[in-house]
Amino acid sequence: MKILAIGDVVGRRAIDYLGKTLRSTAASLGADLVICNGENASEIHGLNKSDAEALLDAGADLITLGNHAFGSRDLYGFLDDRSDVIIRPANYPAACPGTGYTIREVSGLRVLCVNLSGTAFMDELDNPFATVDRILDREKGSYDITLLDFHAEATSEKLAMGYHLDGRVNIVFGTHTHVPTADTRVLPKGTGYVTDLGMTGPTNGILGTDAEAVLYKMRTHMPTRFTVADGAIEAQGVLFTLEDKKPYRCVKVERITF
Ligand SMILES: [Fe+2]
């Protein structure tokens, strides 16, 4: 089993780029499941319904989200109706649209896919460690493989989550910071891990955003409208390879760019 996780998609041009490249890349890598974090895909601050559909058309089997999950109102109904293809962090209040996990059938195996938000330097949501424990308990017996997109700011919180779930969840990857980390590895009890996938968007800006706008904000603290940077697009992600037999330990974690 191979699972390809693609870092935060920033802007409409990045969706178009994936439309031209993702299916062929996933096929050449032999990926059985493709997951994209899409929370910045509609020009940074969220994801709207038509862009979500475009991302699915581009070859994402599942979209995960984060702190901008509810940035576009027209996504709310889609989040409720299509939790098989799009999930938002599970530790938001239950009253929020959508759901925080889904179980996908992939090559005859049931893959429990979970999305969580960190709470260090981010919104004060339910404790992500307790939340994932509850989900694993609740769904015990109904999945073969588990993966987590932990959308978080602090490297320490992400790595702590990796160790918290080591041997219980097959894959833990971080998103949100848009900077790819070099710590691809298999944790001691067999969980494939990386602190941050990176992003899919213009390499020329600051985290995908036009550099001038970010610099103006940081120099002056004045209100600033952020726009997606110009220039060439690059997709960044990680390919996880799992053993073919129970307990489907991760054996390889490789960084992918295209
Ligand atoms: Fe984010």
CATH homologous superfamily heading? Metallo-dependent phosphatases
Number of distinct helices: 6
Strand content: 25-35%
Could you give the count of β-strands? 15
Structure report:
With 258 residues, this protein is an alpha/beta fold. The chain has a single domain (2-257), classed as Metallo-dependent phosphatases (Purple Acid Phosphatase, chain A, domain 2). Helix content is 26%, strand content 27%. The protein has helices at residues 12-29, 49-58, 76-81, 128-138, 155-165, 211-220; strands spanning 2-6, 8-9, 33-37, 62-64, 86-87, 101-106, 109-117, 145-151, 171-175, 185-186, 192-194, 199-202, 233-234, 236-242, 250-257. A 6-stranded mixed beta sheet has the order 5-4-3-1-14-15, with helices on one face. Strands 6-7-8-9-11-10 form a 6-stranded mixed beta sheet, covered by helices on one side. Strands 2-12-13 form a 3-stranded mixed beta sheet, covered by helices on one side. Strand 6 and strand 7 form a beta hairpin. Helix 1 (12-29) packs parallel to helix 2. The longest helix has 18 residues, at 12-29. The model has no long low-confidence stretch (mean pLDDT 97). Bound molecules: fe (ii) ion (FE2).
Name the descriptors.
Purple Acid Phosphatase, chain A, domain 2; globular; binds fe (ii) ion; 258 residues; six-stranded mixed beta sheet; 6 helices
Helix-strand blueprint:
Blueprint: E1 2-6, E2 8-9, H1 12-29, E3 33-37, H2 49-58, E4 62-64, H3 76-81, E5 86-87, E6 101-106, E7 109-117, H4 128-138, E8 145-151, H5 155-165, E9 171-175, E10 185-186, E11 192-194, E12 199-202, H6 211-220, E13 233-234, E14 236-242, E15 250-257
Helix pairs in contact: 1-2
Bound molecules: fe (ii) ion.
